[in-house]
């Protein structure tokens, strides 16, 4: 899943693709490099980010999705709002990537049930502005699994069939650095949910902290090599997908991981 942020304030590439033509060019490049999905998002979910108005989010994502879909590119939409999900699917999106797992909008799950699309539910405890205050766990892996299971049950109860569901442990969302590493090491425990797992590690702060030096955190765009290393490990772990800012290096890592498994 290639990341296409059409936002002015995303932590890694905010403002780079806010222009419609620039966004379409970049989305096309991600697909040409081998992305199975191009994930279009119009609202930053970086720690501390505030909400954007519904109309602004729609104006950012719908034209991009329309143009990419017309070009035959499979597109997902990164949103927590049912109105944006509906408009995005109408414009051609095939998957709704909801970082809140339906918690941010009580109408999201019923809306998705009525749409012909897949649904990705991420583990979430609150909006970006204060989510890190909720990073308290006794056993982070067990509690994330339990809370994701509740979101899966809610989606099924709303009418979303299990064959349309994907889950995401939500690295960096109400998680400390240690929580993120514990979740990565414990990914095999998510098998109990019986669903495909997507993991997003690309350029995240916990990698910046791992690679920090005397000058401070490694800048986001200089964390790609570490992201590639994690992608190889995630391929060996058998995850369904990774959400990344770059594509070709990640595909190389996936091929290496696959060959490592086959031996």
Mean pLDDT: 94
Number of helices in the DSSP assignment: 9
- Level of helix content? 40-55%
What global shape is seen? globular
Taking the sheet with the most strands, its summary is: 6 strands, parallel
C-alpha Rg, in Å? 17 Å
Assess the beta-strand content as a share of residues: 5-15%
Q: Report the strand count.
A: 8
Low-confidence stretches: none
What structural class is derived from the secondary structure elements?
alpha/beta
Write structural notes for this entry.
The chain is α/β, with parallel strands linked by helices. Helices cover 41% and strands 11% of the residues. The protein has nine helices and eight strands. The strands form two sheets. Strands 1-2-3-4-5-6 form a six-stranded parallel β-sheet. The protein has a two-stranded parallel ribbon with strand order 7-8. β1, α1 and β2 form a beta-alpha-beta unit. α1 packs across α2, α2 runs parallel beside α3 and α8 packs parallel to α9. The longest helix has 19 residues. It is globular. The mean pLDDT is 94.
Reconstruct the topology from this structure:
Blueprint (H helix, E strand, L loop, with lengths): L1 E4 L14 H13 L5 E4 L12 H17 L4 E4 L3 H10 L3 E4 L9 H6 L4 E5 L17 H19 L6 E4 L8 H9 L12 E2 L5 H6 L13 H14 L3 E2 L5 H15 L1
Parallel strand pairs: 1-2, 2-3, 3-4, 4-5, 5-6, 7-8
Helix pairs in contact: 1-2, 2-3, 8-9
């Amino acid at each position: 899943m290639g990341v296409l942020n059409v936002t002015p304030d995303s932590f890694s590439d905010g403002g780079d693709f806010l222009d419609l033509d620039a966004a379409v060019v970049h989305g096309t490049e991600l697909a040409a490099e081998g992305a199975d999905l191009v994930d279009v998002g119009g609202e930053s979910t970086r720690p501390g980010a505030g909400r954007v108005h519904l109309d602004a989010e729609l104006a950012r994502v719908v034209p991009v999705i329309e143009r990419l879909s017309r070009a035959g590119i499979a597109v997902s939409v990164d949103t927590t709002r049912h109105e944006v999900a509906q408009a995005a699917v109408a414009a051609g999106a095939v998957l709704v990537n909801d970082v809140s797992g339906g918690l941010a909008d009580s109408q999201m799950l019923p809306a998705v049930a009525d749409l012909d699309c897949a649904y990705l539910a991420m583990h979430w405890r609150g909006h970006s502005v204060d989510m890190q205050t909720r990073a308290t766990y006794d056993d982070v892996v067990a509690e994330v699994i339990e809370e994701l299971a509740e979101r899966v049950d809610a989606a099924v109860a709303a009418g979303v069939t299990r064959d349309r569901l994907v889950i995401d442990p939500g690295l960096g969302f109400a998680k400390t650095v240690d929580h993120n590493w514990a979740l990565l090491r414990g990914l095999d425990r998510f098998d109990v949910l019986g669903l495909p797992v997507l993991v997003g590690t690309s350029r995240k702060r916990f990698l910046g902290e791992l690679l920090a030096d005397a000058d401070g955190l490694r800048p986001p765009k200089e964390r790609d090599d570490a992201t590639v290393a994690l992608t190889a490990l995630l391929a060996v772990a058998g995850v369904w997908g990774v959400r990344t800012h770059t594509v070709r290096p990640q595909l190389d890592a996936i091929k290496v991981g696959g060959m490592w498994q086959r031996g």
